[in-house]
Amino acid sequence: VKKRIVTGDRPTGKLHLGHYTGSLKSRLLLQENSEYEQFVMIADMQALTDNFNQSYKIKSNIYEVVRDYLSIGLDPNKTTIFIQSQVKAISELTMYYLNLVSIAKLERNPTIKIELAQKKFNSSIPAGFLCYPINQAADITIFQGEVVPVGSDQLPMIEQTNEIVSRFNRIYNTNCLKKCTAYISPFPKLMGIDGQHKASKSLNNAIFLSDTEGDIKEKVKQMYTDPSHIHISSPGKVEGNVVFAYLEAFHPDKQEVEELKNQYRKGGLGDMTLKNILNKTLQELLCHFREKRAKVKDEEIASILEAGSHKANKIAEETMQQVRAAVGTNYFIS
Ligand code: TRP
């Protein structure tokens, strides 16, 4: 039997190159690996935990995300793409799990702590937000997920998931839930064009998979380089230079990138020349995505999501039958 991979994204809008190096590239590789069966969920319920008052945006955000998935080559025949809320048993499983985690433990989750500091809930934290790691544990375990490709910020969620699995199996004397391991992307986190922070939609420093030729050109032009590299002839710094970070991430010829670095360090390579090379590299990559994107119709997205959710429901139901039997809530089955 194939091991199941479960991963997902919150539908918060268009995806960018940071998502591409951070998770999408791994998913493309994993979908070709015959040892695994990959499930990618669009975590709309999780997105609601901090955006419940903007639920009107959620549908179009889901469509944007799927359009991005398809444009980079995620193949719905190989990867099951579905919507979290359409697998209602995830919510049911979350209810069982809520009893197995203390509020103190949730408040100690390092990722939640960081997010709470950023989000300013005005001293009124929604219970749903504090509990989303529990909901995420249900996301993973309901599909018997064993491998979870995520960013390193998600490690506390995996740990929480495995704690719940241990407790559930022990308390209800069962082995119906599987433990999982995180699969962290081998590619380093991509910087934003500002050179100050990681690429992020909210910081407005990202290049989107759906950016136009003009957008890309403009963003490369604005990229942070080495502010003390004023004359072409003087030596420049490669470390912290965003153009080099992107060349390393996206240029197909590693040796050429090394040569450019040497030349830049020595002096004689201007920022404009360098940026033109990067622009060409990014245009080549993103024009393929753009071409594919233009062909994706809304009806196609709808039918992919419906079929994916249908398949996900069937698997989830198999786990739930065991869960209900273990807890003893399968009252009408003799
Ligand atoms: N919390 C994850 C993120 O922000 C998204 C997510 C939701 C997820 N459910 C999941 C990831 C299940 C892996 C498995 O990136």
Task: Characterize the structure shown.
The protein is an alpha/beta fold and 334 residues long. Helices cover 54% and strands 9% of the residues. It contains 14 helices and 5 strands. The chain has helices spanning 17-31, 44-51, 58-72, 89-98, 103-108, 110-119, 127-130, 132-141, 155-171, 213-222, 242-250, 254-266, 271-295, 298-327, and strands at 3-9, 36-42, 79-83, 145-150, 181-184. The chain has a 5-stranded parallel β-sheet with strand order 3-2-1-4-5, sandwiched between helices. Helix 4 (89-98) crosses helix 8. It is elongated. The structure holds tryptophan. Tryptophan binds next to strand 1, helix 8 and strand 4.
User: Percentage of helical residues?
Assistant: 40-55%
In this entry the ligands are:
tryptophan
Instruction: Outline the low-pLDDT stretches.
Output: none
Class based on secondary structure composition and strand pairing: alpha/beta
Discrete helix count: 14
Largest sheet: 5 strands, parallel
Strand content: 5-15%
Instruction: Give the C-alpha Rg.
Output: 22 Å
From the spread of the alpha carbons, the general shape counts as elongated
- Widest beta sheet: strand line-up: 3-2-1-4-5
* H/E element sequence: EHEHHEHHHHHEHEHHHHH
Mean pLDDT over all positions: 96
Distance between the termini: 30 Å
Number of strands: 5
